[in-house]
């Protein structure tokens, strides 16, 4: 069944930008996978059928977001623009900004996390500790807002400290922001892979949203493409603000 919550936020002859909802794969990983963004793209933008490094498996896909991360996805509509965007991503020519709500109070206003990320042996998890396929990883972040959430459902009064941060990953490693924030003791709320299992905010995915992408288009003008914060995450912020 087609998803009705996939929103086009920008479109021109070269590319389309999507605000990807959570709980949606960008492309299937195996036969029989659930409905993916690529299924929607093939129906609405059939030209992407011939675009990409592996258009049969990943038509039009030049970068990805985790299944449960919402926000901006760029989709090139021609092979020429695919190559252009791929080069921008590889040479850090695209500025990526994310919003994340994390556990605990981050004291400093700004910070840089410079820790290589590896694949943890025998799993799909990433780690900043020794593992396989280690690659450099750099994330800058800034505190946007700090909260104290008094859980009304707790039997005994329980106050949680939370911090909303904006993060700019300078590299593009799998799970990078999730792993890096967890590595400094501030795992993303709802991220049960790298953080706590507790769920006082009633969230059914991690609070991570690809807020914007900024780059110079091939024609020479600057593009800043922004995706409105997903409704479920807006509700969480409303809850923690009281």
TrEMBL record:
Residue span(s) of domain Pseudouridine synthase RsuA/RluA-like: 14-183
UniProt keyword Isomerase, yes or no: yes
Enzyme Commission code: 5.4.99.23
Pfam families: PseudoU_synth_2
Keywords: Isomerase
GO process annotations (BP): enzyme-directed rRNA pseudouridine synthesis
MF terms in GO: 23S rRNA pseudouridine(1911/1915/1917) synthase activity; RNA binding
Keyword Transmembrane helix belongs to the record: no
Domain of life from the UniProt record: Bacteria
Protein family: Belongs to the pseudouridine synthase RluA family.
Full protein name: Pseudouridine synthase, RluA family, 23S rRNA pseudouridine1911/1915/1917 synthase
UniProt organism field: Candidatus Wolfebacteria bacterium GW2011_GWB1_47_1
């Amino acid at each position: 069944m087609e998803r009705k919550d996939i929103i086009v936020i920008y479109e021109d002859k070269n590319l389309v930008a999507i605000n990807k909802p959570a709980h949606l794969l960008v492309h299937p990983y195996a036969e029989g996978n659930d409905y993916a963004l690529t299924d929607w793209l093939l129906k609405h933008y059939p030209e992407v059928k011939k675009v990409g490094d592996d258009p049969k498996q990943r038509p039009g896909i030049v970068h990805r977001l985790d299944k449960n991360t919402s926000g901006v996805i760029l989709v090139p509509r021609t092979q020429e623009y695919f190559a252009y965007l791929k080069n921008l991503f590889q040479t850090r020519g695209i500025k990526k900004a994310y919003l994340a709500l994390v556990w605990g109070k981050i004291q400093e206003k700004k910070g840089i996390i410079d820790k290589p990320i590896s694949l943890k042996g025998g799993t799909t998890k990433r780690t900043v500790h020794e593992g396989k396929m280690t690659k450099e990883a750099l994330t800058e972040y800034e505190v946007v807002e700090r909260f104290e959430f008094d859980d009304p459902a707790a039997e005994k009064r329980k106050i949680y400290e939370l911090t909303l941060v904006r993060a700019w990953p300078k590299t593009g490693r799998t799970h990078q922001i999730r792993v890096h924030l967890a590595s400094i003791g501030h795992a993303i709320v709802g991220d049960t892979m790298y953080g706590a299992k507790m769920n006082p905010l009633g969230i059914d995915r991690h609070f991570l949203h690809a807020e914007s992408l900024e780059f110079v288009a091939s024609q020479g003008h600057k593009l800043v493409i922004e995706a409105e914060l997903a409704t479920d995450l807006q509700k969480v912020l409303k809850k923690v603000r009281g």
